[in-house]
Task: structure prediction
Amino acid sequence: MSQTWNPPPFYDMGNVSYCAPSIHPMVRCTPKETAMHTPEFAAHARCDSGDRAIIDGALSMAPTIVDCWADHDAMSAIRGASNTNA
Result:
């Protein structure tokens, strides 16, 4: 009998990195002392600071994505890593 792993809906990003090239960037939208996954965190995330964090994160990631798309060797390496880890 084989066992199937059924990850919970909040499984760790590290598990994804076994199957596909991955990064897990984080941007702050709360005061430093605010713990993640708390009501206080949710309150900050759904206001202007949360919106700003998403925009800042997207703007900081965009140049990396463009660099990858423009570099044939980088894209080949990414695709190769993805295919060998799946």
Q: What stands out?
A: Residues 13 and 24 are 7 Å apart (CA to CA).
